[in-house]
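Hi all, long-time lurker, first post. I run a small reading group and we've been trying to get comfortable going from sequence to structure in the token notation. Rather than ask abstract questions, I figured I'd post a concrete chain and ask someone more experienced to write out its structure so we can walk through it together at our next meeting. Sequence below, copied exactly:
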Amino acid sequence: MTTAPVFLHASLHALAVTHRRRLRLLRLLLFIVMASALIGEMSIALSYRSAGNLLLLGLVALLMLPTVVMMGGLLWYLDHVLSKALDGANALLQSCTPLTGRLKPLGPESRAGTLAELHLPADGNAPARSIYGLINPSFRWNAPPRHEVEVQLYGRDWMPGSDWVALQADGVSLLGKVVDRTAYERRQRILRILILVLLCVVLVAALVFGKAGH
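-- Answer (accepted) --
Happy to help. Here is the structure in token form:
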């Protein structure tokens, strides 16, 4: 289980605590589901004491082992990804000079994140400019603002693919990545088209097999 390091930036403490709490709940849910299934099969097998039920119990127990391993691996991966995001945000908050800018959400939330426009002030040789970023969707319990707000922006090169952190006035951090808006919107259109095509294929297949069954 991941623990928040003592040097974690104050604005990330709440995210780290919520992350650990939700991982514990997911592990508890996995244990309850698996234990309930096993107890149910054991009660049936011991009640009827038939060879078929005992064989079914053994089969269920055999299938549960790879399921537990797979779910444990998924939980480990989720923990690793979110912990890495927190560590990266912590490094930015500790090492980068903040820029006072503005953050404006542009679109609805999706699995990829929430598209936002970041207004960066003039910094050294770089003039004031606007870039686009995706607010990390992994921390959905930390909802992005619904309107344009002033934030402290932390980042390095502000190029597509680079990480950034926006520290809001209430001390809550938003984590994200810089994106090329044109490329992002093109990927989203292609994804919507693929989903629509898949739904059409499933519908046609259901109709064909339904007629064949009659």
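A couple of things your group might point at:
Residues 183-214 form one domain.
The first strand starts at residue 99 and ends at 105.
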